[in-house]
Write a structure and sequence with these properties.
heterodimer, A: mainly alpha, Arc Repressor Mutant, subunit A, 2 domains, B: mainly alpha, 2 helices
Chain lengths: ~190, ~90
């Protein structure tokens, strides 16, 4: 969606036009779902959060600024919903309030897409990505997979641009280490 | 478009090439119908609000006109009395 179309869609969304919503839905549904599923490592959670993201869009549509960039806006909503989900899961798990951080600790789970991928290369990358901490995963997903600029990704993650660049470099190094570790495990087995 | 050079980095390039996936079609249909319902409710609420506001303005219009007319007349009479009064 080019910028001119996007501005027009935002205006129509503000007016409550269902066709504008359909255009945004078609453009972002698979991208948002893939982002959420890789972030949450759980299809069901991703589908719940995706539905909530769309409901947030339609209920906040009238208050969108005319120059809103829909991609970063939607990914920020999806990411914030995932953070809230993590916090509520920590509470459900009986952790003390003081232990609540942004991202839950825990043993890495496999990516929901590992079974579905076509090639070994994709499977390796899905597995290595799933093994990273969520804070690293989100940066890689936003900048590398989604192609957001550093400024846009920093706005989505609510951090400064230099902090995001550091996170990106750290995440890339961790991903390389995970891929190396995976190769070592495959060779030794 | 990202300002990070992905092409020159084989790891990042492979990551960028990972495919996108679709959500469960049944869930997608449910999401669509729920969001449509929200949009419909918002549109009908806006329609009702606009209609109510229009009716209220129409009802108030004669009162406003009469008040403005009376105020104008009073001002003219006051001016006339000041100019030509004893």
């Amino acid at each position: 969606m080019d910028r001119e179309t996007e501005l027009d869609v935002v205006l129509r969304l503000r007016a409550g036009d269902p066709e504008a919503f359909e255009a945004v839905y078609d453009e972002y549904r698979a991208r948002l779902f893939t982002f959420l599923a890789r972030l949450a490592r759980d299809r069901d959670v991703a589908e719940d959060l995706l539905e909530e993201t769309w409901l947030r869009l339609v209920s906040h549509a009238e208050r969108l600024r005319p120059d809103t960039r829909l991609g970063p806006w939607l990914f920020a909503i999806a990411r914030n919903l995932f953070c809230s989900h993590c916090r509520s899961r920590l509470l459900d798990d009986g952790h003390s309030a003081g232990a609540i951080g942004l991202w839950p600790a825990g043993t890495p789970r496999p990516s929901p897409f590992e079974q579905a991928v076509a090639s070994d290369l994709e499977r390796r990358f899905e597995r290595a990505l799933a093994a990273l901490p969520a804070a690293d995963r989100e940066v890689l997903l936003l900048v590398v997979v989604e192609g957001f600029t550093v400024a846009e990704a920093a706005a989505v993650c609510e951090v400064r641009q230099d902090a995001l660049r550091q996170r990106l470099s750290r995440a890339r190094a961790r991903l390389a280490r995970e891929l190396g570790a995976l190769d070592t495990r495959v060779k030794s087995s | 478009m990202s300002d990070v050079d992905v092409e020159d980095d084989s790891i990042l390039a492979a990551l960028a090439a990972l495919p996108v996936h679709e959500a469960d079609p049944r869930r997608a249909r449910r999401t669509r119908s729920r969001t449509r319902a929200v949009l419909r409710r918002r549109r009908s609420r806006r329609f009702l609000l606009t209609a109510a506001l229009r009716i209220w303005c129409r009802a108030l219009e004669p009162v406003v006109v009469c008040s403005a007319g009376a105020a104008y007349l009073a001002a003219v009479i006051r001016l006339a009395l000041r100019l030509y009064g004893s």
